[in-house]
Write a structure and sequence with these properties.
262 residues, 2 domains, 9 strands
């Protein structure tokens, strides 16, 4: 007996839009989604609004482009990898948050953006500004630059070929060549700093969590008002973050090696 074939046009159109946005390497405009899906422009616009409100799609208010939202970010193999990293990193993050009295965040790159996917808070620390699921431009953040620094220069150029880095504040790096110079310096010192580049008067310092392949799979960071994260404080945080990120990296590699030998 042949199973009945059910159809739901709204669901099919939603998945067509999600697949289109998910297949793009960078955020894409409405016109491209309309062209790639073959759907009516008004329909696509309406469904994007719904998917954005539900968290499956993220819309940039700056240039009105679309990327996968934090809910889509949590699906599939990528979710499994990040959940594994978060699971192993969590005890280290809790210890660091308690020692520093600061909230510690774990973030990963998605295209040209960085997404926060876990956090650890001290019991009596300052209120959080960065929330789980929050997206920011990778080139404007310490976490994003800490991950981008371990890509080959050609990969970075390709990443920004269609969407050049844009200014988010007066301090944001907006040229790919300038960004590459900073990424080279980050590789040398082992950590990245964002001094009001994503949010005015808001600083951040981050260190990469490395995979055995040499890829930075995530970044560990602390952020806060520039008045609290002055240069001396940033220097202290950088040392602690770099050491903790290295501990997490070593622990993950050791755990994976032991798992593979079973």
């Amino acid at each position: 007996m042949t199973a009945p074939r059910y159809q739901n046009q709204s669901a099919e159109r939603s998945f067509a839009i999600l697949e289109c946005v998910g297949a793009a390497e960078n955020p894409i405009p409405l016109a491209v989604i309309v062209r790639e899906t073959g759907l009516n422009r008004a329909t696509v616009f309406r469904m994007l609004a719904v998917l954005t409100r539900m968290g499956w799609i993220y819309k940039s208010e700056t240039d009105s482009t679309y990327a996968l939202g934090y809910k889509a970010f949590g699906l599939g193999r990528r979710k499994n990898q990040l959940e594994t990293v978060a699971h192993h990193a969590r005890p280290f993050m809790r210890r660091l948050a308690a020692d520093l009295g600061e909230s510690v965040h774990l973030a990963a790159r998605e295209g040209t953006q960085i997404v926060c996917f876990d956090k650890a808070e001290p019991s009596d620390g300052p209120p959080l500004v960065i929330a789980v699921g929050m997206r920011l431009d990778a080139h404007a953040t310490a976490s994003g630059k800490a991950v981008l620094a371990w890509l080959a220069p050609d990969e970075v150029r390709q990443l920004y070929s269609r969407h050049p880095p844009e200014a988010r504040t007066a301090r944001t790096i907006t040229g790919v060549d300038t960004l590459l110079l900073e990424l080279s310096a980050i590789r040398m010192q082992g950590y990245a700093v964002d001094e009001g580049e994503a949010i005015p008067e808001f600083n951040c310092v981050a260190a990469p969590i490395m995979h055995v392949s040499g890829e930075a799979v995530a970044a560990l960071s602390v952020s806060g008002p520039a008045s609290r994260l002055d240069p001396a404080r940033v220097s202290l945080l950088a040392g602690r973050l770099t050491a903790t990120a290295a501990e997490i990296s070593d622990y993950i590699v050791d755990h994976d090696s032991r798992s593979d030998s079973r």
